[in-house]
């Protein structure tokens, strides 16, 4: 990656790298290099955890009286695939993705999760370069500012699973929760769960327990149902 492209990216994300190689690595897809020290996959892994922490911190600061369930659901909304993909689009940085010979950037970036993975890789790279959670937080606030409005609907904890079950019963639908991903250390795991209505995925949730991930998934499903 040449100096001009690096400067363009830095201007777009609002952070100047000391180690330019880290920036290049954050934009290197595995199709360009399978070397774990050269592609973005481990940076994405780190960035995912940092993103979860920072979003939780911001939400708690903005909503000190919010219930845990409401905070978990709102965090799941913000760190999900769609908001991150939209943020990458607004930053206009997807075009800098480095892909393998014969591959096309626009085809790869449209694959499931590639754009959101890129966002998380940038978060991880900023943290690695700066050694500062504050620098990563500044980028996240800049890129996702529209999602932090200082308010959460949290007058009472909602039991999204019960609400979804009631909806399913009324409409004679089956409800099934499927754990699609489990990551992190055994003492601090993260679960990703899909909820299916009559076998069709209706929502996806993420949480530190299967129960909280299921609640998030049910909340997402109810939001889609009520659109």
Description:
- The structure is a single chain.
- Helices cover 54% and strands 11% of the residues.
- By secondary structure, it is mostly helical.
- It folds into two domains: 3-147, Orthogonal Bundle (Ribonuclease iii, N-terminal Endonuclease Domain, Chain A), CATH 1.10.1520.10; 160-225, Double Stranded RNA Binding Domain (2-Layer Sandwich).
- Strand 2 and strand 3 (200-207) form a beta hairpin.
- Helix 5 (81-91) packs across helix 7 and helix 9 crosses helix 10.
- The N and C termini lie far apart (43 Å).
- The relative contact order is 0.14.
Topology (SSEs and partners):
Elements: H1 3-13, H2 20-26, H3 41-62, H4 68-78, H5 81-91, H6 105-109, H7 114-130, H8 133-143, H9 160-170, E1 175-183, E2 190-197, E3 200-207, H10 210-225
Antiparallel strand pairs: 1-2, 2-3
Number of helices: 10
What is the fold named in CATH at topology level of the largest domain? Answer: Ribonuclease iii, N-terminal Endonuclease Domain, Chain A
Instruction: Provide the CATH architecture of the largest domain.
Output: Orthogonal Bundle
Structural class: mainly alpha
Count of domain modules:
2
- What percentage of amino acids are in beta strands? 5-15%
- How many DSSP-defined strands? 3
Q: What is the name of the CATH superfamily of the largest domain?
A: Ribonuclease III domain
pLDDT < 50 stretches: none
Distance between the termini: 43 Å
Mean pLDDT: 88
Widest β-sheet, arrangement of strands: 1-2-3
- Assign an overall shape: globular
CATH class of the largest domain: Mainly Alpha
Helix content, binned percent: 40-55%
N-to-C SSE series? HHHHHHHHHEEEH
Question: What's the gyration radius in Å?
Answer: 19 Å
The largest sheet is: 3 strands, antiparallel
